[in-house]
User: Fold this.
Amino acid sequence: QVQLVESGGGVVQPGRSLRLSCAASGFTFSSFGMHWVRQAPGKGLEWVAVISFSFMGSFEYYSDSVKGRFTISRDNSKSTLYLQMDNLRVEDTAVYYCVKESNAFDVWGQGTMVTVSS
Amino acid sequence: QAGLTQPPSVSKGLRQTATVTCTGNSNNVGDQGAAWLQQHQGHPPKLLSYRNNNRPSGISERLSASRSGNTASLTITGLQPEDEADYYCSAWDSRLNVWVFGGGTKLTVL
Assistant:
């Protein structure tokens, strides 16, 4: 059974950092691209970042709203995806979902809530 | 990064047919096609279709997707109460190298 479990969310002050983790199971983690997608309270979905790979190696892409502040990474030996979030802003407040990519966003975790507030 | 355009809401009666549209441009919907997701209140989204009309296993045949130019559409026939949810389209933008989402459409089954 394919499963994604996020952790690491919480309440943090503006300008501080937080690292999210996503533990994957039930599939060969190293063979798939992985995303972070967020959803602010009462709002729609917003894509955050992807870490994928090709024959040339792994690559990462970010949305403009987080570029330079967030870093996506993975540890294939631990089947774990990470999101390092630095210089957090109030507008980063959202549920953060870890998502497996196989034909678009085919498996989602339950999400972890991040609240940025002073 | 401009997102994809969806109507905020669609309302149809029980057993009727609803269509949700999603408009992008030639770099996203018009190039790679769109994926559709369904989200019920308090739950994570669920993939309904990808690259226009490919359904993952377990997705009802009452749902079908299509694309015409830069506009993708999701059609749900024989509406049931459980179809009431938020629907999102998404596509890879090959010029910007980002994924973009539509703003979401709230489907109400009357």
User: Anything to note?
Assistant: The beta strands of chain B are 9-12, 18-23, 35-39, 46-49, 63-68, 71-76, 85-93, 98-101, 105-109. Chain B has a mean pLDDT of 94.
